[in-house]
Amino acid sequence: MASDLHPTAIVHPEAELASDVRIGPFTVIGEGTSIGSGTSVGPHAVVEHAAIGRECVIGAGAILGAAPQDAKYRGTETSVEIGDRTVIREYATVHRGTEALGRTSVGADCFLMTYVHVAHDCVLEDHVTIANMVQLAGHVHIESYASISGLCPVHQFVRIGTHAYVGGGSRVPQDVPPYTTAVGNPLKLYGINSVGLTRAGFPSEVRLQLKRAYRLLFNSDLTVAEAVRRLESAADTIPEVRRLVAFLERTERGVLA
What we know:
- The protein is built from four helices and 27 strands.
- By secondary structure, it is of the alpha/beta class.
- The chain has an eleven-stranded mixed β-sheet with strand order 1-4-7-10-13-16-19-22-25-26-27. An eight-stranded parallel β-sheet has the order 2-5-8-11-14-17-20-23, with no helix packed on it.
- A hairpin with a 4-residue loop joins strand 26 and strand 27.
- The longest helix has 15 residues, at 204-218.
- The radius of gyration is 20 Å and the shape is elongated.
- 42% of the residues are buried.
- The model has no long low-confidence stretch (mean pLDDT 96).
């Protein structure tokens, strides 16, 4: 049992808490929960059916593992998974999965800010940053190092690619390709996420090749399918461009242009 457990907190007898976990006032730790070493859970939070990693920070009033808001859900045992060192700020909500996937997962080193909602069966990979009041519908998949600014609703089943950036206040109805910037209503692509890629240490040659691929895909007379075939056949295609091409080939909701 956690050594720093506020006397007003309620902890389910079968919950598994590392010895140095900190639990704040009036917090409820429900059944099916495990919390790793060094994690702190703020006041008035509710955590149930969740596996939380090491050194995480859960803010005041956050709710993790509540039942999914899906009319088809009939009480199947599902869960939430939170990776190590992830920060989930005040009043954020992460609902557990449905029968479709069985879990909702947030990776390691993620940052979910105030009032973020992560719906059932979402998958957030590592190092994802989501700003205040972003609302993710069910089955959204966000790849590593993607960033979403505040006040963005994201449609169900949308995918947002690695190192992509979505500007604030944007409605996201379709997939956002890796390494790109998407802003506005209606949402549009505005080139490669040059600032983010530079900050992440991508070499100038990689950024140049991504810009050339972007122009071919979205700013040429070719259709996206034709541009994809041309990039696939290029012998000197770099891994980042191959990843961009593979993302476009797998899209189900279509991509922005």
